[in-house]
Amino acid sequence: MQDKLKMTKRILVIDDEDSVLEIVQISLESAANWDVITASSGSAGIELAVSKQPDAIILDLVMPEMDGLTIFKKLQDNIATSHIPTVLLTAKVHISEQAEFRNLGVAGVIIKPFMPLDLVDNICKILNWT
């Protein structure tokens, strides 16, 4: 954990639930001192990904305006954001869906509800940040 605290990362979190945005932001800022940017819609998230160039994106799968997979595909289709690893955050995941997400290029999946204290370790494990 000590090594993770030395890494300065910029993380974009896209989720339509304010409470989830707040929990993720507080968890990542307090546990790892990461710079966390939040967006409550897909369109705002895409704009922030282009302008802020985060090290990773945490993306809710179920959103009202456009779903997480649509957002992910738009990010992948944009040369400015296609290199940014994306971790899906969702309550709805079956094993077959996880394989489908990986085939699409999603870095990994974190299942809701998650333990806020484990969030940094889970992200680091998924993204191979040691």
UniProtKB/TrEMBL annotation:
Domain Response regulatory: 10-127
Organism domain of life: Bacteria
Keyword entries, A-Z: Phosphoprotein
CDD domains reported for this sequence: REC_RR468-like (cd17552)
Gene Ontology biological process: phosphorelay signal transduction system
Modified residues (4-aspartylphosphate): D60
Protein name, per record: Two-component response regulator
Record organism: Nostoc cycadae WK-1
